[in-house]
TrEMBL record:
Region entry Disordered, spans: 29-49
Species: Apodospora peruviana
Residue ranges of domain Galactose-1-phosphate uridyl transferase N-terminal in the record: 8-212
Name by which UniProt lists this protein: Galactose-1-phosphate uridylyltransferase
Quaternary assembly: Homodimer.
SUPFAM superfamilies in the record: HIT-like
Coiled coil regions, renumbered to chain: none
EC number(s) recorded for this UniProt protein: 2.7.7.12
UniProt cofactor note: Binds 1 zinc ion per subunit. Binds 1 Fe cation per subunit.
Pathway assigned in UniProt: Carbohydrate metabolism; galactose metabolism
Catalytic reactions of this protein: alpha-D-galactose 1-phosphate + UDP-alpha-D-glucose = alpha-D-glucose 1-phosphate + UDP-alpha-D-galactose
UniProt GO cellular component terms: cytoplasm
């Protein structure tokens, strides 16, 4: 269904082909007065170095380890990991005729969680950093991903090449896991509104023995689309469609498209999609890694410029699993989601409550309207002129 002007004014549902779900769009609700909770505007008044920060260079962390005097990125195993490599065995007895076995299912999950700093500077964010300064972050993501691939992975050759092309970073290296893991989720929570407990610029990397729900749904949908449409790829077709339509495009370069997706739930949600069939970080060339850094910088800077605040969000990369078949690798298409909560100002946020929890997600401002606002937010970062 093409976007028509009437959809800016009427309630309607939109389909998300990436996970097979629907959402309700109610554009007329943007006119309602707001008397609910308002967030405090985020202010960037942090020192470049905080002696109490457990992520700053040289400082001691919660478990007693001291950080090195790192220059770019620094990676370490999370002192409070959500999953662990070693734990007590659990093997449920599959009694198919037993009601408890059918309804009270559980499975063990092992893995390893990392923290990765973006910069030694406590007071910076990705929006403040140049693309060249973000590049070491992407290079470190790539090296960590490559080090966790299974020995029989379809991308093993690409991983070897990528590691050879990327300069080593002693502070950004991690040891391979003791056991082969299934998936790696790279994500960032920026801002207190998204539950971030430390403002030092950093992300987390969780590797697990299981395939999580969201990337698992996407992989199923992409494989299904590929099978039903003569080998074409869902996101490959979507990139071509959005480049042609233009109305939801925020920014693009030769390698990446930034778009407010047709099915976006969050008010200013965007997705960064590789234009060619990139299956994972290790598929990227040197130039594409830099162009990916440019895309991340464009998104985060435009977010901050939109309401002239340190814009909160959760972002995450979806790519081929660490241990996968040839078909799963072919079905994967590298992309990055940004889910920001702010709705109409630096102080009013979107809540997923009520109908959204009990029925289905709902949004007010349309993705087309959101894209237009973000397109207008280019240029220099607002706080550089303050």
């Amino acid at each position: 269904m093409p976007h028509e002007k009437v959809l800016d004014d009427i309630s309607h549902r939109r389909y998300n082909p990436l996970n097979g779900s629907w959402l309700l769009v109610s554009p007329h609700r943007t006119k309602r007065p707001w008397q609910g909770q308002q967030e405090a505007p985020s202010k960037n008044q942090l020192p470049e170095y905080d002696p109490k920060c457990y992520l700053c260079p040289g400082n001691q962390r919660a478990q007693g380890d001291a950080n090195p005097q790192y220059q770019n990125t620094f990676a370490f195993v999370n002192d409070y990991s959500a999953v662990k490599e070693e734990q007590q065995d659990y093997s449920p007895d599959p009694k198919t005729e037993d009601v408890a076995s059918l309804l009270l299912q559980a499975q063990p999950v092992t893995g390893r969680c990392y923290v990765l700093t973006f910069s030694p500077k406590h007071d910076t964010t990705l929006a403040d950093m140049r693309a060249q300064e973000i590049l070491p972050v992407i290079e470190t993501w790539t090296r960590i991903y490559a080090s966790h691939l299974s020995s029989s992975h379809p991308l093993k050759t690409e991983a070897v090449r990528a590691v050879q092309d990327i300069p080593a970073n002693a502070d950004g290296e991690v040891d391979p896991p003791k056991h082969q893991l299934r998936y790696m989720q790279i994500f960032e929570n920026k801002g207190a509104a998204m539950g971030c407990s430390n403002p030092h610029p950093h992300c987390q990397i969780w590797t697990t023995s299981t395939l999580p729900e969201e990337p698992g749904k996407e992989l199923i949908q992409m494989a299904k689309y590929k099978q039903e449409h003569d080998g074409r790829h869902l996101l490959g077709d979507y990139v071509k469609l959005e480049v042609e339509k233009k109305e939801r495009v925020v920014w693009q370069n030769d390698s990446f498209l930034v778009v407010c997706p047709w099915w976006a739930i969050w008010p200013f949600e965007v997705i960064v999609i590789a234009k060619r069939h990139v299956r994972a970080l290790v598929d990227l060339t040197d130039d594409e890694r830099l162009q990916f850094a440019e895309a991340i910088q464009e998104v985060t800077r435009r977010y901050d410029n939109l309401f002239e605040t340190n814009f909160p969000y959760s972002s995450g990369i979806h790519q081929a699993p660490l241990d996968c078949t040839e078909d799963e690798a072919k079905a994967s298409w590298f992309h990055m989601h940004f889910y920001p909560p702010l709705l109409r100002s630096a102080t009013v946020r979107k809540f997923l409550v009520g109908y959204e929890l009990m029925a289905e997600p709902q949004r007010d401002i349309t993705p087309e309207q959101a894209a237009a606002k973000l397109r207008d937010c280019g240029g220099e970062l607002y706080r550089k002129s303050l």
